[in-house]
Amino acid sequence: MLTEIRLRCKHPGEGALRAGASAAHAASGRYAELTGGPLDGLLLDITGWRADEVDTGVALATGLGQFVPGGRALYDPCPGEPRFVGPGVSCRFYHCGDTP
Description:
The protein is mostly beta strands. It has helices spanning 23-28, 51-56; strands at 7-9, 30-35, 42-45, 58-61, 72-77, 88-99.
């Protein structure tokens, strides 16, 4: 099953609400902040994700990583790091490598 992955810039002045997103949606969603690697500073929309999906981490397609074209940047949560409930940034995903 394919899932739509939404990334946003951290600061509205840097294009966070482009592509037709509304300010209300951005304020009500849950996000993981991507730390390190080619997508550093972007927010991953994890609204509606189950806890086990967040624990697994993600492989995000990007043209900015080590393997281009078609490579993926790997991001995982840090075990034991606190998560916050409610809208906004609820956790961080840390870059742990790239894959073809």
